[in-house]
Amino acid sequence: MSVLLVSGTSTDVGKTVVTAALAAAVLRSGCSVAVCKPAQTGEMPGAPGDLAEVVRLAGDATTVELARYPEPLAPDTAARRAGQPMVTRDEVVSAVRELDARHDVTLVEGAGGLLVRLGADGFTVRDVAADLNAPVVVVAAPGLGTLNHCALTAEALASAGVPCSGFVLGSWPNDPDLAARCNLEDLPAVTGSPLVGRVPHGVAGPDVTAFRAGATGWFDPDWLRAALLTR
């Protein structure tokens, strides 16, 4: 069984699309996959959220959402403002372990960046990864400014002894500018972790057949096998 946490350098860097692409790649290999979203914010009850988008794009993935809050804020803030219970660290870890026992691969999609507080007592994706002894893959923006965000995230993981599985550039442009092109070489140098994927801009459209067929090719094949398919 294999658990991988998907975090980001910030919000709106493409975590959900990358999570869907990873799920699609796992399914295409013939393995089963589950995706856990500890806390969904910015969506009302009954509305489709990030996990619905993962299923739309990737296909037959098991999904579990533990909490949902209507305002688009950090989960602990959103829960407090809504007067709703916060999800707990134990609840998240238990849910992931239960999914891991029944699936070949379990992906856990965080909220915003690595140190965003997910719930009670201010726990984060980094804490969940430490509890599960699981690595984190970090989704980053491709352009100018991302090197500092990536270096800080890598340092935060290293300080807690949590392995960084690698970085994925979300929404890779069709015509990358100079900064984006330079980042392909510079990002591994400043973080000490490999660049393991690039998900093209605009792939999360209506053509889910193309998405599922292309997903495997957006990641380094050796990393994909080692991180998800052979653990």
Summarize the structure in words:
42% of the residues lie in helices and 19% in strands. The protein has 231 residues and is of the alpha/beta class. It has one domain (2-229): Rossmann fold (3-Layer(aba) Sandwich). It has a seven-stranded parallel sheet, with helices on both faces. The chain has a two-stranded parallel sheet with strand order 3-5. The longest helix is centred in the first third of the chain and has 14 residues, at 15-28. It is globular, with a radius of gyration of 16 Å. The chain starts with a strand and ends with a helix.
Quick overview of this protein structure:
It is built from nine helices and nine strands. The protein is of the alpha/beta class and 231 residues long.
The level 1 CATH classification is Alpha Beta
Number of strands: 9
CA gyration radius, whole angstroms = 16 Å
- Overall form: globular
The main sheet comes to: 7 strands, parallel
- Mean pLDDT comes to 95
Looking at CATH, which topology would you report? Rossmann fold
Distance between the termini: 6 Å
The low-confidence runs, each spanning 5 or more residues with pLDDT under 50, are none
Q: State the helix count.
A: 9
The H/E string reads EHEEHEEHHEHEHEHEHH
The secondary-structure class comes to: alpha/beta
The CATH superfamily is P-loop containing nucleotide triphosphate hydrolases
Give me the CATH architecture, please: 3-Layer(aba) Sandwich
**Proportion of strand residues:** 15-25%
Overall helicity = 40-55%
Q: Which strand order do you get reading across the main beta sheet?
A: 4-2-6-1-7-8-9
How many structural domains can be distinguished in the coordinates?
A: 1
